Each structure stands twice: as C-alpha cells, then as structure tokens.
Please model this.
Amino acid sequence: MPETVRNYFGAINDVVQTFWQGLSVTLSHMFRRPITIQYPDRTEKRVADMLPSRYRGFLEVDMAVCTGCLACARACPIDVIKISVDKDPANPKQRVITQFDIDESKCMFCGLCVEQCPTGAIAHTREFESTVRVVENLVFRWVPDAAKPVPFYRPVKGQDAPRASVGSIMRAYLVSQVWAAPAPDWAAPTAGKDKG
Amino acid sequence: MAETVVRRILGRMSPSDEEIVINFGPQHPSTHGVIDFVTQTNGEIIRRSIPDIGYLHRGLEKIGEAVGYPGYMPFTDRIDYLAAMLANEGYAIAVERLLRIEIPPRAKYLRAIAGELCRISNHWVAVGTMASDIGASTPLTHALREREAINDLLEELCGARLTFNYARIGGVAFDAPEGWAEKILRYLDHLDSYVQEYDRLISLNQIYVKRLAKVAVISREKAIAYGLCGPNLRGSGISWDTRRDLAYGAYPEFQFDVPVGQGKMGAVGDCWDRYAVRVLEMLESSKIVRQALAKLPEGEIMAKVARKPKPEAGEAMGRVESARGEMCYYVVSDGTENAYRVRVRTGSFMAMGIIEEMSHGLMIADLIALIASLDVVAPEIDR
Amino acid sequence: MKITTALDSTSLTTRYPKTALATTLFFMLALPFLLYLVLLLMLPFNRPEALDAVAQRLGWDLGHSPLRDTWYAVILLVEATIVSLYTAVFAGVTTWVERRIAGRMQSRIGPNRPGVFGFMSWVADAVKMLFKEDLIPAEADHLLFRAAPYFSMVGLTLPFVVLPFGESVVVADLNVGVFYLTATSAFVVVGILVSGWASNSKWALFGAVRGAAQVVSYEIPAGIAIMVPVMMAGTLSMQGIIRAQGGWPWQWFACQNPAAFVAFFIAVTASLAEGNRTPFDLPEAESELVAGYHAEYSGFRIALFLMVEWANMWIMGALAVTLFLGGWQIPGVSVEMINQTRGTDVFPTLVWFGWQFASLMVFAIKTWLLVILFIWLRWTLPRVRVDQMMSLCWKYLVPGAFACFIFTLFWVMVPASVHLVSGVVLSVVVALLLVKFALRTRKNIAQVKGASVDLSNW
Model:
C-alpha cells in the first residue's frame, strides 16, 4: 500500500519536475539568437561569398588553360561532361576543342572531375544560384560557338597554369544568363571525334 | 511490381470484422522515408504490421557494376546520406582490400575524424526526429541546429554538406584546412555541455519517457536472431561494436566506451534504451575526435593508386560501424575496371525484419515509437 | 551582384516600409480596438431599463411595444456579432503570436516578412485559404462533411456570450454563466466526430474517435474543478464570481484556498485536453495521423476548424482567469468605487468608461498571459498516448478534483481572515517560485558553452 502511494505521488512529482525543466529550457531559448540566416536579402554579404573556399558549387572551366586531355570527362561517373576535339583546320599541328558542355542539371557535384584536371582549368566555384525556365539551358557551354573553337593549352614546365581566379568566369557567365531564354537549338555534331 | 507485393502482404492479413487494414505511408511524416507499413489493427491495438519496402530503390548496387571503382564513391553517399562519410569509408576499405594496399596513417585518422563527426550529425537527426514523432517539435529544431555546426565543419573540409564524397580509394580527398581543428574543438566543448540541456528538455521528460519505456522490448536473443546491428543491438544490452571488436583504420588507437542499454527507465531493449544509446554515443564520438585531433600524424593523405584501378579477380569485404549499424560492402572483382558485383548490407534493412514480430499488441503510437527508435532511413533499406 | 531571376527577392515590406507599417498598425490596433470601443459604447443600452431611460430622454414612448423588444434584440445581436468577430481576429492574431514564439523557442525566426514583424501573415493566410480549392472526397458524406465545421463553430462562439471582458463589458451576464459555458463548449466534439466520420477515411476516423473520448473524459475533472470557485463565490454567474474576488493576487481565488490552487492546475490541464492542445493533441497528432479528423478538409473549411482550435484558447484562458485569477479586478480598485463614478444620468460618465477600459485591459493581459502559457506548453512537451491520456484523467485528475471539492466544502465555513492568510502565503510562495524559475532559466544559458543572451535577428 505505501508502495503504490509513493509511486502515485512520485509520478505527480516527476511530472511537475519535468514541466519545470522543460519550460525553463524553452524559455531560455527565447533569449538566444536564432540561427536563421535571412537569405537572400538580409545577409551582410552575398551568401556565395560567405561559403568556404572548397565549396563544391557550379563547375567553371577556364578554357584558356584547358589542355584537352579529357580526363574530367572520363572521370565523371554519370557522363555530364561532353567534350569534342578536332584538329585546327588552319594549323594541323594544333588541336582544338569545339565543344565543352557540362550539364549542370545532372551534375552531382562530386568533384571527381576537378581532381583529375592537370592545370586546374575545371574547378568548383561557390556559385549555386541559377534558375532558368527551360532545363536544357542549364547545360553550360564553355565553348559557346563551335565555329570559334579553343586551342589546347600547352603547359609550360615548371610553371603553374595562368588560370583566372576561381569564380570570376562563373560570375560573368551567370550575369549573362537570361532566365527566360528559349530552349537552345542544338548544334549539329562536329566533324571531329566526339569524346566523353 | 509494388502492387503484387502489397497484394501478397494483404493476402497474409485476414482481418476479422472488428479490424481494419490501413497503410502507414508511403507518404507519412513519421516513417523516416518512403516506407509503407501495412497495418492490421483493431482500433488502437495492432495485430500485425508488415513493412512494404522498395519505394526508394534506385539500383545502387547495379550501378556499382557500371561506373568503375573510383566513380562509385559518390553513389555510396546516396546509400545513406545522413552518415555519408561512414558509407564512403566502408566502400573504400573493401576496394583497398581488393587492391591489397595500405593507406597512410594520416588518411586513417582523417577518415576517423570525419566519420565520427558524421556519426554525431546522424545521431542528432535520429534523436531529433524521434522526439518529433513523439510529438515534441522543439527538440527537432534544436537537434538540427546542432547538426548545422557539423555540416559547416565538414563543408570546410570537403565542400559539401550532405553527400561528402570524401574518402577515396587509397586515402582521402582533402587535407584538414587551416584552423579546422580549433573549430572542431570549440564545437565539441559546446556539445559536451549542451547534451545535458537536451536531456532536460526531452530525454528525461517524463511524458517522453513514459511513451518509450517498456515499449517494443527487443530481447537479446531476438536481436541476434533478426540480425540487428549498431545502436539497435546495443540497446538490447549486447556490447558489440565493429570499431572495437573488428577494429579497422585508426580505431585501435582510440580509447572509448561502447554504451549499451541498461533498462534505466523500464526494460533493457525498450525504445528508450535505443534512444539513450544514441545520445551517449554522441559523447563517445566526441571523445574519439578529440583523441584523433591530438594524435593526428603528419604525412600523405593518399596512397598511390591508378586512375582507373583494375584489381585482380577476387572478392573483399569492408565492414564499418556506420551510424545506423554495421555496414558491409562485399565487392567482387573480375579483373576489369568495373566491379563484377557490389553488395551492400545495411543496418536499416535488418531492422525492417523485426518490425512485424514486434508489432503484435502495440498501439499505433507505439509503432511510431518503434520505427523511430530503430532509426531506419528508406535509402538504406531500398538502395 | 543581382541574381538574374525573374522574381525579385526583396519582400514588399522592405520595399515599401511606410505602407507596411501603416497597414500593420491598422490591423494590429484598429481592429481589436474598434471592436472593443463599439462594445464599450453599446454598454449603456445593454439592459432593457437603460433602453427605456434613453427612449424617455428622447421623448419616445415605447412602453412594451414590439418595437422596444425588437430594438433590444437587435442591440444584443449586434453585440454578439461583434464578439464573434473578435473570435476570428483573436484566432488570427494568436497564430502570429504562436508562430513567432514557437520560432524563437526553436532557435529560428517565425514569420517576419509580411507586414512589420510578420504581423500580416495571418491576414495573408486567411485570404489564401479562401482561394484554395474546396475538395470533398467523392465517397464522403457530403452533407455531414459540409456541416461539421459549423458544429465546431457553434461550440466556439456560444460561450463568448457569457465571457466577461470588463467590469460591465459582457454580452449577457447569465446567472448560470459557468454552467452555460461548460455545456456549450462541449459542442466542439460534435464537429470533430461528424467530420471524422463524414470524411470516409480511416485516418480521420481515428482522430475523431480519439477526440471524442478525450473531450468527454476531461469534461468530468474540468466540471468538478470549476465547482470549487463556484462554491467559494456562491454563484454560477461569471461576473458574480469575479466580483467575489479582488484585484491583488492574495485576493484571487487561486490563492485564497489551497484546494483552489490545485483545482486551478486541474482546470487548466482539463481545458488543454478539451481544446486539443499539446500535450493532448492526439486527435490531430500530426506525426501519427497526419492531421487526424480534419485530414480531408482544405480551403476555408479547414480554416474554420483551425479558427476553432485557436479561438478556443481564449475561452480556456478567460475561464481560468475568471474563476481563479481575479478576472478584470484592478488591484487597489473596488467595484463600489467604479459604480460610484457612474453617475445618475442615463449615459455614464467618461471616468466610468475609463475604468471599464482599464478593467478590459486587466482581463485581456491576464488572459493573454495564460494563452502564451498554453503556446509555451505546446512547444515544449511531447504528446501523451491514448491510454496514458485516459489514465491521467481517471486516475489522477478526477480524484484530485474530488479531493479539492470536498476540501472546499469545509473551507468555505472557515472565517475570512484564514482565507486572507492563505492568500498571502500562497502569493508569496508563487512569487518565490517565479523568481527561482527565472534564475533557472538564466542558468540554462550560462551552462551551455557558446550560448549567450542575444535578442537580435528578428
């Protein structure tokens, strides 16, 4: 009998203690700073500039230092990088890249391509904001016009490749991107070999 | 295909006139992913509840035969995205065993640090969602807030917040950045002092305890018979931890306890025990990370591995203590650059088996508590 | 650098701050105050005698003509409508208060973009609900499905007739006020049951049956606990019970009788259960039943159910304040003092209106504090299970309420000085407990490394 009485009033006491502790914890949180970052207009800087430097955002390619080795296209497990190379008609010793498309709508931002690049031409940026009306426009074309192909870069021994600062090319690309652009009409396949 | 499975499940249920068969899910806030529990119940008391899985099947094991060994690493993230570092590590260990290479000690330590931080992050989600399923929504946001700090730490390390793709075959992808260790230690100081507040808010809350104590008690024999692993197994009082008993990587060099369920609030192996094991494991992981940071050796972070490795024909197992249980990767190679077979055995899949047995006589609210206490996630079950 | 999307990301509030402030202030102050003011102005015409006196003054001879009765009925109808409008506005404002409080308790900000401090979010939600598609499941019982919210609305608005807002600010001070209130507020469960059944969904049925069991069970301890202040005051009339108390905390019924102190907590717990608030929100347990009895409702119909749930908090709070916490009694001001300022004319003096307004504010503040307590409890506690809810009611609350009742039977025979002593002692105990609670709260922040008091980020 005293056991049950003790349990009964013990249960009531436990519940009162519980209320006391729980309510004091939640009240104390009212006086602490919420961790919400009021994106996108009430932050001190652009959020993309507050991210760590290793952040794996959109891929950008500095075509000026791309050696055309196709390592990134081969490393990608889901084949979102499509590169076409050809011989330069004007200069048979020089090879050119006629197509370098990265399908950002399918990219999983894993970074395997970036690791394989010998010059750092392809790199992850900290940009992550890009919405377009037509999903095909999320294929970022780093050689925009197949008629103006980009020659392979020849790395100089002992020197780092003169790559533009990471993110600058992407920012320019995103500013020029038009949200409501119509769907692209696909370029006809190039005469050269398709790789990737 | 799912329709036939459901019909087969329904065929096993023979509801009497007073019983109804309802679907818990696949769209349901508390089933931890798209899982359907076909439940035969008499009002509140359940007769049996059979899980119908497969709604999140993505063919991840088949993908392992197509993308090559290094290319599969991002996919291991997706097998268990809440504990991605540990999933990465398991696959890396299996392939390293196939290639018969040793990884540098600094890589082992970095994998351990990242893995344990990921375990803390996963356990925050587990305890937070469990509290939310029981009805308290505030502990969920607090747990996610704590997890945000770890997300930020791992974002500084490897650039991603969820699907890390950090381990590589032969080591790890990135070295620890400047100032990272100090940030981790600052967070761990905060964590060690914060868990007591979280306990006072919810773990020791009498309403919460009464909802979980003595509910769905899994005995030792049942736990072993159904192949449970990880915190589910330890909640039933069995002290087995792959990090200690089949030690791999840098774990032999760390001192840590393995918390087991002791039936403090009810019976050994009830839902509260499994919950408490997870909270205590967070503190143990914090200890491990501190030791690892103190002893972090200098050196390389990657061994020499070919760009597209072609291991000899053979097979290997990589067993890691993932946050949700033991994760086994069984990789078979046929000498080419794609694997012949990748098989993943996850803790959540094993936990599905015990639900039907445990569901006899539970109330609906208890079924929710059981599923939450087993910490299942649909991607691990369905792959 | 501007983000090149077609949608501008800055909110209207940021772009037109002055308009936002003006709109917010209007909704925040004008609506409730307008309602209060109109109610206040109608006070003199509240009783038939006052109506006769006014008619005499103006030279009309109404006698007992049908015109006079119609006029009286019209005034009462208008007052009742204003009070119902008040329920809607209160429900809306409470959603905003709840979401902001819940936000900061959860380390996040609540709604803060529509209007200043996000105050217009409830207006936006109300308008949105009006525009949503009205879905009725094909197999549902169409008539009952459509009728169910109105049953709940009846259970919500009828009690407002007897709820006192100020010293004379009440639509109808029935001499069976408390009884009427408990009876009509039970109507809400009819709406729950009917909606659960008519939805033709097993989940909704679960929620409905749980809800019915819950409300019906908790009527018992609620009723008995409510009898305690009724016995102490000797009347069932709401205004009468308040008049038997005083303004200072030691004159409140909750402090004047230790059994009433316990009965206060029993009444509050039982009210929480009847209003389906956490920890008793089983009928609509979101993580189990996915919205329970109103799972199949959308658009304005569910807005009605939600309005009932939130406005019910006012009834719960007002009931507790009336019975236990001294109602609208202003500390230091007695009812005779207010009556003396009325003057002998038909229209009361401005001073009298001022005192009415003060009593209105006292009542509103006390009720709002209780409402905030209910919100606070919701976001702290988990949910109880069905059998635990039943055992709590029958094994703990009902015997406790009976014990308080029997104690009070003897307590009312004790001289008034003992009541005063008990009042002072309990007031001091409560004050000390509040201080201890504040210290514990401050200690919470000090105990966690990296936490500090920081009131920024709204």
